[in-house]
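Lab channel / #folding
Pinned by the channel admin:
"Please post every new chain as: sequence first, then the structure tokens as a reply. Keep commentary short and put observations after the output so the thread stays searchable."

First post following the new format, from NK:
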Amino acid sequence: MNPSDRPLPPKAFIRVDDKPSRVAAWTVFWVAMAFAVIALPFVVILLGEDRPEAGAVLWEFSMGCGFAALAMVLLQFAMTSRIRWITAPFGADILYVVHRIASWGVLALALLHFGVLYIWYEPALGALNPLKAPWELTIARLALVCFGLLILTSELRKRLNLPYRAWRLIHIAIGTVGTAAALLHVLGVGNYTEMAGSRALWLGLFAGWIVFMLWSRMVRPFLLARHPWRVISNEMERGGVHTLTLRPEGAPLRGWKPGQFAWLSLGHAPWKLRDHPFTISTAPDRGPEISFSIKPLGDDSEQMAKAAPGTVAYVEGPYGTFSIDREAKAEGFVMIAGGVGITPILANLHALHSRNDPRPVILIYANSTLEEASFREELEEIAKDIPLTIVHVPEEAPADWQGETGRIDKALLARHLPDVTRAWPHMLCGPAPLITAATKALISMGTPAHQVTSEVFDMV
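Reply from TO:
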């Protein structure tokens, strides 16, 4: 049967938890809220009856850059606080990418604020010597240094061989100090913040920041600690992957979709900052026990992959949008995986299998060798029951191998993806170079960009 002739599955097979219109509405709402937070300081100042007399254009520009930078800093904490009703429309992984990009914007605005004053209004900066300068100006320079260090340590983490947990502790410490310093600078300098409305606004934003900090570092870990999990098995898979199966000893995970991930902490209390994001490799239909498939790629993940049965665990989730359940009207799926990137795709395939979903799936799976292809036998078993076509792409193939070899490129994709698949959702997960190359190739073949989604986490 031609894939386009296959009937869509009955509604019983489809979980429609996120209607596109609802997701779009929430996306627009949160984007508007973000812009509102950045604009609010300016609105309060412009409407204030007690605002100071306007200065020169460059002076006002500098002040605007400073206010915008601080508002964006506070938004950073909201984006990374893992509050589900904020992350749901976008996916937590996407918000972390936005957080990373926005950090450069914060630094650029802060440098503009300082640079304009330094070049054209140097007396306003006072002495650069912190022993002689007013505290509210010295603390601003501390904030600027902190923002620079945040980006430097994040962008160069792997080159500096900085372990993930050490980087995370440094990131939190520097971010907290820098934000507190910037807020105190704004309140201490006065000028626009001497206005009643403006001062109340910044004090309110300061209070909101404290609330986000308390939620992230105290309340959320406390709630997680009340619902521990236990590792009941650790199975070795192909490619060095370990599949850990966990059983809830408190409340089970609720409302998760195939392909979503959770933050997992093994053998440590949840407030010790040893949690990592991993895809839930089982489908929701198979709960309440859940599995995580972990490949040792760093110090922490190597230790987690060795977890013995009986190890206590804490699970926070679900998060993410990499799910077939967001594609209820799709006539089929194209899935492209590289290495351990098969994990979220496997979870989606498990769901299709459990539901006996008749929609066709074309899976293109790249690995260094055929023996490294994790879950190879499991995928073959799934393909016996649902219309799943598997295309293995080993970089190095055995002598008797008759299939594809090398790397995924446009020519390879054209051989296996007929024209009808252009309208199907394309789900990609794997190393960044593979995702980049496959995405470019798919778009050049006529696949609409909105039909290509990928997982973008890179934490080990």
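NK: The longest helix spans residues 196-225.
TO: also worth noting, The chain has twelve helices and eleven strands.
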